[in-house]
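Review form for a predicted model. The reviewer records the input and the model, then writes brief findings.
Reviewer: anonymous (R2)
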Amino acid sequence: MRLLWNRRFGSMWMPASSWVLLSVITCTPIASILLGGLEGQIPRVQLNQLPAADAILCLGGGVEPSLSEPTGFHLKAGADRLSTALTLAAGEKAPLLILGGGGYPHQGRTFSEADAVRDYLADHMSLKIQLHSLGVCSDTHDEALKVAELMKQRGLKRLLLVTSASHMPRAAAIFRKTDVQAVPVPCNYLSSVNHLGDLHWLHWPSHHGFEIFACWMHEKIGHYVYLWRGWI
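Model under review:
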């Protein structure tokens, strides 16, 4: 306002641009439309119509190990990945459930997301399925390499690949590169265009827009980084 009052219009472009960008992200569904474009690249599936496979792979990102939670882990925004994989396991779509995920350094020790979930399922759930943890993985490419080696060792052919819908295009491309026959099972649809309820073009500012935009930006940058590295 001070710049406007003093008619310093040349100095207003940066704050004005920032205000417009923030308004677009927080007050409109533009971020959701961008993310929805990623989520829509892989068709939705009906779990009961999926073919049987040799294994189910749940990519990491849905939980984090916890020394405070009584379960030993904390559910994050991507927890739909785990619930979807468990639904497939309960439906006996495969005899093996593979768990991926990252590592969390704490006081000189690294805690594994996959190990935390495996230990909980083994101790508290009666699943008719074998559990396998990939241990600490640095990224999706690392998960894919470990899975490819595991499938080669065990003579496995087909995999049900479970991950967030926005992440699935990149994940599916990685597994194609490693010659793993992966059937995509997208879940965890975050964009408003894929949620129940009407889409309003103008609404009160919300932090949700930042989260959606950050997710879209993460996947776009990740795609080009993986492409540059020759991973997809």
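Findings: The chain has eight helices and nine strands.
Further findings: Helices lie at 2-5, 13-27, 30-39, 80-90, 113-124, 140-154, 168-177, 208-229.
Recommendation: see findings above.
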